[in-house]
Amino acid sequence: MNQIGTFLQQNLNITIPRIGWADVVEIAILVYLIYRIMAWIKKNRAWALLKGILILVAFYAVAYFAEMTVIQQILNTIFSAGLMAVIVIFQPELRKALEQLGRRSFSQTFGVFGQSVREERFSNQTIDALVRASMEMGKVRTGALIVIEQEQPLDEYADTGILLDSMVSRQLFLQIFEKNTPLHDGAVIVRENRVLAATCYLPLSNSMSISKDLGTRHRAGLGISEVTDSVTIIVSEETGAVSLAIGGVLTHNIDADTLRNELIVLLQKPDEQETGPFWKKLFNGSPKAKASSRKAKTEPERLPETAGKEGRS
Fold first, then answer.
1. Which of 5, 109, 226, 304 is 20 to 30 A off residue 28, Cα-Cα?
2. 200 DSSP β-pair partners
3. Is this structure's pTM higher than 0.70?
4. Where are the beta strands (DSSP E) in 19-138?
5. Is 264 helix (H, G, I), strand (E, B) or coil?
6. 186: left (phi over 0), alpha (psi -120 to 50) or beta
7. Using one digit for the tens of pLDDT, what is the confidence trace for 281-297?
8. Three-state SS for 213?
9. How far is CA 113 from CA 17, 32, 279, in A?
10. pLDDT tens digits for 93-135?
11. Structural domains of the chain in order of their starting residue, each with its CATH number
């Protein structure tokens, strides 16, 4: 190693600094912190904000090299006030992240002794219960709105309803959405193989292209798919048709086989558990499954208001 350093310094005028244990530890800490920050950003609304900031930075670089002084001054003003704006906008998320950090043990936080366990977050039984319950409710025209959480947490929407934390089953869905029962009004949120909450409020879509025959339930299901990466199953109360909303796209009137295939593609993907070492997750990543068979029915727009109890659809 010393010979390589001497050769580079004499011939290429390159000096290799000495690296001690303190430097290695410092690099490891920085890598871990950057990873945790990026993982937190990706799971929250900050991911879209980060992409917007990167676009502004690229625009600033173009303005700098092109010597556009007025644009540089405007962007400098935006960046100077941007940090305070980010703290105000994401105050709930930042507080929740700090609370979660305080609840973790050392091994959970750094993953030194944890094992990376890869497993399917949604079992075949869960998918079967979702499909059978949706189709059975459609036959008797029982309205339903089921939101399935993926990478982005839905805690802020679950907090608006009644927490259940129950195992997913066909009978449970049928009982929840039975007419004139205390929990039938609103949305159900599913996290992995459990029903997290019921009677939840969802954001409404403001799409002008959505059919006038579809009511508040469909707009709420479409709205949550616009602002999160969730998968939403909607059962119409008037027609009994089953629809699927993903990424702001509504696929209407699907059959059991289509629904099952879409859920298998979207939900049955490996997930790195939080107990695993972060360095394995950093290099291995988590595969992102995509549904290629769904057809675009609408091009929705965002609406900042929220939907309360689901109306007729």
1. 5
2. 187
3. no
4. 118-120
5. helix
6. left
7. 444 444 333 433 444 33
8. coil
9. 32, 15, 12
10. 677 666 666 655 554 455 433 343 434 578 889 999 999 999 9
11. 2-110 (no CATH), 122-272+288-307 (3.40.1700.10)
